[in-house]
Amino acid sequence: MPLSSADFAAIWLTLQLASITTALLLLFGTPLAWWLARTRSWLKAPIGAVVALPLVLPPTVIGFYLLVAMGPQGPVGALTQSLGLGTLPFTFTGLVVGSLFYSLPFVVQPIQNAFEAIGTRPLEVAATLRAGPLDRFFHVALPLARPGLVTASVLGFAHTIGEFGVVLMIGGNIPDQTRVVSVQIFNHVEAMEYAEAHWLAAGMLLFSFVILLTLQRRGRTGARAIS
Amino acid sequence: MLNARFQLPFAEFALDVDLQLPPRGVTALFGASGSGKTSLLRCIAGLEHAPHGRLQLNAECWQDSQRGIFVPTHQRALGYVFQESSLFDHLTVEGNLRFGYRRIPTAEQRIGLTQAAELLGIDHLLARRPAKLSGGERQRVGIARALLTSPRLLLMDEPLSALDAQRKAEIMPYLERLHAELEIPILYVSHALDEVARLADHMVLLEGGKALASGSINELLPRLDLPLAMGDSAGVIIDGTAESYDADYQLLSLRLPHNGQAIRVAHKPVAIGQQLRLRVQARDVSLSLQQPQHSSILNLLSATIVELAPADNPAHLLVRLDLQGTPLMARITRYSRQQLGLQPGQPVWAQIKSVALLG
Q1: Of A40, B22, B66, B267, which is least surrounded by CB within 10 A?
Q2: Which residue of A has its CA nearest to B137?
Q3: Which residues in chain A are closer than 8 Å to B74, comparing Cβ atoms?
Q4: What CATH fold (topology level) applies to the domain B235-239+271-358?
Q5: Rounded to an integer, what distance in angstroms lies between the CA atom of residue A114 and that of residue A124?
């Protein structure tokens, strides 16, 4: 077997991280995307820009500020310590927090686009059919935005799996805690174990290609909201 | 009774209306695009929140900005048919129909799914997806969906405008059935006079966000001071009663309201006593001082001139006539008026060259 138990541990940890991150992002990102798609507030532009920041920033910058904020002297660190949780860097929880920021735009933006594409008409129609605001959100907006939600989940999951810089900055390299696949590949290369690095790297390559191929095929059969 | 008063500023115009509309029958909101018809309908539905407004349907108050009342759309017992049918693509036809139906209390359900589907002839489409329907079918589903919320007011925003002539003709009979079978007021937005002439009992004429006139369609159409009298489509509507049928010549004789006179039209036989709506356009009516003899024109009616007014074309004049209580309009040339010396109060013979039987 070309993969060691340390490799499998890294893969398992990575899948856990990506699943938890994606689930949390869908939970919090969907209302945020809804707000961004519907608001006329001046806050839309600055908040939209903040959401998009991870697209352009080097992951080391995100990781650095998260490390500072979550460290013993940082505001988040002070809060977690006062709650008796200790500090988050170099823990799995810290990694989840980092991934939430890192993958935020990949989840929020497709959902926001989907909500914007639906427009106001289906919601107005639903209102004339006696559906209240929450009813409209759950029974009209969400089902019609389904393609966007699927794209967001896939992108958020895949992007979290590909995370490296942020992990290295705030997570270090602790087996079963913070050692994800990308870090494990780095370790293999450092140790001149190119064959082992290949197995993991090729696996990642294939995984990413299949994901993007699936999205491309879905994109061609784009759904309309209303007819 | 529906009382609607709204003031709502827009970029190009301000909606400013104060209307009292009848509790039954079809009221047409008629006007050119940009006259505020759709905005008025959206205010009534609560989709647009006019800063100054009062809206009362019978005993229910839906908006009173002075008392700070604004009932949100989903709590108003109204049905809305949009310009495009706006069916939910993620649901089947049946899912669309049930969407509103299951959101109203059972005690308020006055019409069932089967009944609504039959009324609009869509019972065979229930399992289909909206994307697989024709434009006319979609619009019928949209109407049935609105009816299934058992509304106390039905709003229709140009439901036929997105359809070609053939689809329009396909839906028209269903709209006429609604008119006959529903006991609620229907507000029907349109800029097509032929639709309005077929369906409406009342009419609100809108221009630049203001109501120029509001009243029964039989009274508004013959008014020479309204823009309705301009253009080729000017004419009147007469609700006649089938009086007799000549099977040999296949001519139906319709008695005019409060009148001893009748109009004959080529038509299939109908039940005696049935009400039928006629449209007589001003350009199809000519005037004569003596009773014309030896004419092929079938309908010669004795009338009195009420009023003369300039038409949009400077060569023409519009003449409003009275047939013992039934108004009629004629479009003649200024030259003819001069030759015949026509004056208000004068008795004349109206020769009607063609009559359109609506519905």
Answers
A1: A40
A2: A227
A3: 126-132, 135-136
A4: OB fold (Dihydrolipoamide Acetyltransferase, E2P) (2.40.50)
A5: 17
